[in-house]
Amino acid sequence: MTEEQRMQRELRAVRPRHDDPELPDDVTSQDLDRIARNELKTLTKDNAEAVGRHLAMAARVIDEDPELAHRHVLSAARRAGRIAVVRESLAITAYATGDFALALRELRTYRRISGSNDQLPLMVDSERGVGRPDRALELGRSVDRSTLPASVQVALAIAMSGARLDLGEAEAALSELEIPQLDPKKAFSYSPELFSAYAEVLEELGREEEAETWHERAARADAALGTAGDQPDETMEIIEIDEDEDEDEDEDYAEIGEVPTGSTTEGSTAGGTTTAGSTTEGSTTDADEAAKD
User: Is-above-0.85 flag for pTM?
Assistant: First the structure.
């Protein structure tokens, strides 16, 4: 059996019967990001537009209606089952609908086609979803994390921590999250989720005071990122002022220093849908100089 025949058999199992959902007139393939559009260039022009519209519509509705998003991606998969972004999107919408077995299968196919490990965190979480935390941990350890983008490393740490909790290993779950990105003084797009996950494991361990501190840091990081507004190439440095440094300041006070940088946006997108976590990274000024300002 050829690779193409095998993929077609997989897709038949995914959608034995399927009717295309309706597409609004204002949805076009141009709504996709550049990387996704480039992948579709291997298709005929008309087919690329049809596939792109379904992917773009899936990205539009996935938060409020994951089932509808999944139907749109199924329509795309019928037309372009060998395109990596299509299989990735199919996995993401399957995961969003709670079909973890399908998500895992599609993620394996995506990984095989693309050669990318950027969806490894979702694969680990899908293994958890089908009740295999041991296999989730094994899968997460199968890749050298230093080869992954920072945002993917964070998402993987969170997924691995969840698998540890599934096994009742709270201390190990905390250790999984103690990675270089767990820096309370710098806010990247992945920081609020990482800080919150760390706080939740601390709560599981009964370390309530520390958990509250990290919940506050997550909120502070989220607020700092919110102040970036339409300036995605800026990173935030959060300066925590201790009571012994300034008795007039509340200990939870945070000052935000904004520094334009030439940073790039890391992360994986599927049909324009942000997945393991798009991360805007860059350098920041020294905390002391920011405080002086």
Answer: no
